[in-house]
Design brief:
By secondary structure, this protein is an all-beta fold. About 0% of the residues lie in helices and about 50% in strands. The protein has strands at about 5, 10-15, 20-25, 35-40, 45-50, 55-60, 65-70, 75-80, 90-100, 115, 120-125. Strands 2, 4, 5, 6, 9, 10 and 11 form a 7-stranded mixed β-sheet that branches. A 4-stranded antiparallel β-sheet has the order 1-3-8-7, with no helix packed on it. β5 and β6 (about 55-60) form a beta hairpin.
């Protein structure tokens, strides 16, 4: 059974930091395109950070310079380090994996390319 399990969310004040983790199980964790998505209340789920199978990363402009996506293949874990958080970062955060692709494409900023999703972890940033 394939599972992606996120953790690390919570409530912080503006300017604070959190590190999200996403542990994969039930499939061969290898060189795949993976992403972190965010869904704010009343809004669509949006891609905010991608990492390809060889560690190349890309970010949505609104998080660039503040968030860092990384992975530890030995631990089957994807991370999102989030610094300088602001209230606009509030939302449910999801990790996703596309085991069919090593390299991420423009289409991976949307949701349809991903086969596996986690259940989400809530991040709330207060001003």
């Amino acid at each position: 059974q394939v599972q992606l399990v996120e953790s690390g969310g919570g409530s912080v004040q503006a300017g604070g930091a959190l590190r999200l983790s996403c542990v994969a199980s039930g499939y061969t964790y290898s060189r795949y395109c993976m992403g972190w998505f965010r869904q704010a209340p009343g809004k669509e789920r949006e891609g905010i950070a991608l990492i390809d199978g060889y560690g190349s990363t890309s970010y949505k402009d609104s998080v660039k310079g503040r968030f860092t996506i990384s992975q530890d293949n030995a631990k089957r874990t994807l991370y999102l380090q989030m610094n300088s958080l602001n209230p606009e970062d509030t939302g449910m955060y999801y990790c996703a994996a596309d085991p069919g692709r090593t390299y991420c494409t423009g289409g991976h900023w949307g949701t349809v390319r991903y086969l596996y999703w986690g259940q989400g972890t809530q991040v709330t940033v207060s001003s």
